[in-house]
Amino acid sequence: MTIFGGVFDVAVKIEKLAELEKTTLEPDFWDDSPKAQGIMQEMTRLREEVAIWQNLSTQLADMQELAQLGDEEMYEEMAHEVDVLTSAVEKMEFRALFSGKYDNEPAILAIHAGAGGTEAQDWAQMLQRMIVRWSESRGYKVEIIDESPGDEAGLKSTLMSIDGDYAYGWLKSERGVHRLVRISPYDASSRRHTSFAKIEVWPDVAEDIEINVEDKDLRIDRFRASGAGGQHVQKNETAVRITHFPSGIVVTCQNQRSLTQNLEMAMKILKSQLFDLERRKQEAERAVLKGEDVDAGWGNQIRSYVLHPYKMVKDHRTEFEMGNTQAVLDGKLDGFMEAFLRHRVGNSN
Predict the structure, then answer these.
(1) Beta strands 107-113 and 141-149: pairing type?
(2) Which residue of 39, 54, 65, 227 shows the fewest CB atoms closer than 10 Å?
(3) Quick one: 116 and 215 in the same domain?
């Protein structure tokens, strides 16, 4: 197994699997059912990853033995096997880019329109559509948790959960400010406008962590849920808005069926945000101590979408760009996400 060392950490995975298996033998293992189920899921994932690498190692060893025989008639078959193995290793190498502790978790994603009224609100809705299209193309489950409709069109903000393999690992590339340049469909003079919207992403780990939230630090407001444009206003106050005074975080939830469900969902999101806030704070402090460049935070303009006078989408962190702007807005984001993941690994070396 020493063949696949370094970034793949196969030996570490085997050791971790052994530790977890030992944990399952403890008498009180199933006393905490959610925690136990999480451990079992992690063991399943580790077993699958280790099995893949062990299979590749066996195949490579077999090919080395064939090569040592020097049988020329086997060279063409071996060349094909080399291509197959190379492709498999490249796929696993990319999988190794998801090295973050929470990369395999579901994601919670928020979009906020910037200044600019209807233009920015329309842009926020375009980004929501882009993220939903990308998620659906991967077979992910998307749930809109809350939406605040724009004054005339679009969205002031939206909050959604996205569940699927490595959802957070992929979507963390979208965190930051997105800039749109286009001829405004809302401008009678057909002038060019620049709009901004911000995307926030954090791992959905509220059920797996302990976050102490005291009642005195919260204000909980109830109100009637409504659809876009004030339609479908409910007679009962089932929507919830939670304000957390120490952090300034405000969470609104109105898409669940009852007050209790909206409150539970809002608290779950609040805890996830508080956890991610603390995690990012600790990462920034460690980066300062190590003398690394520190991300300035949400204010970074990470990507520009130019629809006029030319068509181009460019990521300012990686320099990756695409000329097919409509494909990007339709959810073709894998190229940008992969470039971001490789860029992050390159900068950490």
Answers:
(1) unpaired
(2) 65
(3) yes
